[in-house]
Amino acid sequence: MSAASCTTNRYDVVFIGSGINSLAGAALLARAGRRVLVLEREDRLGGAIWTAEITEPGFVHEVMASWHPLFVGSAAYAELADDLHALGLEYLNTELPTGYLAPDGSAAFLTTAHERNVEELERLSPGDGDAWSRCVQEFMPNADLSFGVLTTELWSRAGARLATRAYRRLGRRGLVEFGGSVLASARDWLTETFTSPQTHGLLAPWVLHTGLGPDSAVSGFMTQVIAVAIELGGMPVPKGGGVKLVEALAGIVRTAGGTLETGQDVERVLVEGGKATGVRIAGGATVAADRVVANVTPTQLYGRLLADATDLPESAREAGRRFRYGRAEMQVHFALDELPRWDGDERLGRTAILHLTPGLDGVSRAVNEAERGLLPAEATIVLGQPLAVDPSRAPEGKSILWIQLQELPRQPRGDAADEIDTGDGTWTDELKERYADRVQARIARHVTNLESALLKRVVFSPADIEQANVNLVGGDIYSGSCALDQNLLWRPRPTLPGHRTAVQGLWHIGASTHPGPGLGAGSGTIVANELLRENRARRALQGLGRRLGKTTEAL
Ligand SMILES: Cc1cc2nc3c(=O)[nH]c(=O)nc-3n(C[C@H](O)[C@H](O)[C@H](O)COP(=O)(O)OP(=O)(O)OC[C@H]3O[C@@H](n4cnc5c(N)ncnc54)[C@H](O)[C@@H]3O)c2cc1C
User: Fold this and answer.
1) Cα angle at 262 between 261 and 268, to 5 degrees?
2) What is the CA(21)–ligand 1 centre distance, in A?
3) What is the SS3 assignment for 313?
4) How far is the CA of 515 from the centre of ligand 1 (A)?
5) Most Cβ neighbours (<10 Å): which of 274, 332, 395, 529?
6) For 303-318, b where at least 16 C-beta lie within 10 A, e where not — what string?
């Protein structure tokens, strides 16, 4: 423990963990004059943002999170953009954010130009282009409500204000209709709205990026929000990698006098008389703080950090224990000696994120197999091409691919294709490499030089992912199932909604809390704003007290 954070120092706010929510929250608070400390157990800041040359020198990989539309669209970025840019952060973007590649080589694309999207979908099936136009037109007037649900503390006055605004605008019937449409599955929304299986294939895989499957409640709403957001915002990435965002956020904290420390595993939140008073770090050092903000899973919060808090309601502990984790994930990184040579549509090589899948039913089948404990026979391959947005990520003429496989069991019980022996369900190196071979062979059918140009492949299994970040339990990259009973109003659990906890002064943020996973920094921003408001309210009360005191003296 360094001198900076030992007991002699008292902080206004201590953050446990340095994920995007902590960094954004700490930056907002530090800029407003709060003394903040961020404690991170790993040897690098940023949590799931991790940029490193993991294959060959000069090949800059996003080991985990890669795409920043959520951050660029966030309230935190709106607030901090000038400071972040002054500290060197630069976003690059593309007009060709996403595409769909079917096994037969046919493809479809979504761009950032509305008219081109209408033409593309109309090409796939007459009527689908008009349907897309109607979707965007109907979505936009209530976009503030849709995005508001994802950026507001729902269990608060702000949440009540959002509901009132929705009621005033839509009326009782309209509100019921809006609420009902939010609940629809992606399958129902897609098949009711579009006729082409290609359009379904273009949009359906995006539900995976919300932790859901195409047959889950709310997945239709999530798909729409993402599809519209992609058309409006593209697929931005920081020039040089996500580390640039991490460095810039940390720079704001340091410039404002805050402290960030790595290699500090917080093992307890200190609680006295029902109030958080600080934290204890592994090794025994303690830090005193007025407020503690924990960016951890409920399992860790209630099972470890609050293990000694004797007056914690048993219902809170029980809810922490019952928090469910979602499907596991695998990352595969390729370094290539050449640019990938795509067979087929020339746009394939220029697209930021492609989904290789048989389509809506293909995604549904793979999700279902994973949820039944099987390695999917034909997984949805999320194929990211960082160079399509930021050519600085690899030496001239060479390339990298970022592959995500979001339909995996945390502990496989078998293989749906009956080819790979999953042993006792442990994610061994052998198991992850055999599964990556299957995926590589499918990509090689479309990228003709994949195997001849391959310099190195690095695979992160679900076990490796958890090893790298304790919040990604079992390789669940979204830190908890996003099923409806653990989402929106009910995240992390129906008995623990929102970000306040049963311990006064202890706040819970991170992907396990509303508005869930992603780089939007939503929970960190919500809590930073709550803490600033709390402080303003306290100061106003103190001022009132002083004024009343003077008045009484005068009497
Ligand atoms: C492989 C992968 C790919 C993804 N791709 C994208 C993407 O492209 N775009 C996107 O928007 N989202 C993506 N996501 C989701 C997104 O990255 C995460 O939801 C988000 O980064 C989570 O941020 P967080 O603030 O919850 O904290 P996390 O990033 O989970 O970080 C939490 C940090 O807290 C630390 N910590 C935990 N406990 C303690 C403790 N007791 N003491 C000290 N430190 C502790 C951990 O070590 C970790 O560093 C991806 C996630 C993963 C894993």
Assistant:
1) 85
2) 9
3) coil
4) 14
5) 332
6) ebbbeebeebeeebbe
